Amino acid sequence: MPPLRSSAVTLRSIAYGDSDSIVTFFSRDYGKVSLMAKGARKSVKRFSGILELFSVLDLVWTQGRGKGLCILQEASVVNPFEGLRTDFSKTAYAAHWCELVYHWMQAGHPQPAVYDLLIYVLDRLSEGALSDEVLHIAFQLHFMRINGFAPTLDHCVKCGKPLDRFKGTSVAFNMKKGGVACARCHAGAPAPGGVSKGTVKQLRWVLSRPLSTLSRVRFSGQVLEEGCRVLEAFVPYHLGRETKSLKVLKHLQRGKITPLKKLNSNRGTH
Ligand SMILES: [Zn+2]
Q1: What is the structure's pLDDT at 65?
Q2: Residue 149: per-residue pLDDT
Q3: pTM (predicted TM-score)
Q4: What are the tens digits of pLDDT across the range 213-228?
């Protein structure tokens, strides 16, 4: 079998034996793939320390013997996303998005739309071109859309009433049904965890437009807080689990982690 090649994002790395690593990548052409990186932790020359999390690399790998893991043969850096390593908040967002991709993507199933989405948000996050929270909202919405779980934001998920005809300014979110619910369908009153109608409209705007248009809109602090809160509940509900990195991110957003603790908990997630 000839060597396989693809660009890929490094999602996870675990030590194997004395000097090797098993590295899981999300490749553009082959989807999620775990490769044996022989000598990765011993020889500086072997991969020159480039198998860092979140880095985009060009990879070459070959089939291992028998049913063993494929072997990483060559790796060269396309984009190291340096900006993600010097700011703990950015590290936490990148770790969370990569963990969602790690858990949701099936090995060997290419998902180029998810790959392009991940590269886009990591690149903007690293550059600081858009706010971390705007990128967080955009990533979650489009990740769910590509995977067929886009939240319903323009009408009640139970009775179909258009959002514009909802009474009041607070809108309830029905996690199970996957979208907004009018007051009558949501036990007669908006839930305490509801969000404003304005937030729902902005989430809808983000969901319906290309990522390249994100910079055209200003998001208020309320929209960012509510948008992040509802999506950080919505995505794990449909994924079926809350990732470790989301717990770190939530503590960070609430200011519960001091810089030293932040560093340690980040290391603990990988
Ligand atoms: Zn309804």
Answers
A1: 79
A2: 95
A3: 0.89
A4: 999 889 999 999 999 9
Spacing, Cα 183 to ligand 1 middle (Å): 7
Task: Indicate the pairing of strand 4-16 with strand 56-62.
Answer: antiparallel
Q: Which of 201, 197, 193, 196 is nearest to 174 (CA)?
A: 193
The partner residues of 4 in beta bridges, in order of sequence, read 61
pLDDT of 263 above 50:
no
**CB 22 within 8 Å of CB 45:** no
Q: Which ranges of the chain does DSSP label H, i.e. alpha helix? A: 44-47, 88-104, 112-127, 132-146, 197-208, 221-239, 244-253, 259-268
- The CATH number corresponding to 4-129+240-268 among 3.90.550.10, 3.40.50.1110, 3.10.129.10, 2.40.50.140 equals 2.40.50.140
- Calculate how far, in angstroms, residue 205's C-alpha sits from the geometric centre of ligand 1: 21
Radius of gyration of the chain (CA): 20
Distance 237 CA to ligand 1 centre (A): 21
Query: How many A from CA of 182 to the centre of ligand 1?
Result: 4
Size of the chain in residues = 270
pLDDT tens for 123-176 read 999 999 899 999 999 999 999 999 999 999 999 999 999 999 998 888 999 888
Q: Tokens in use for 241?
A: 């689990």
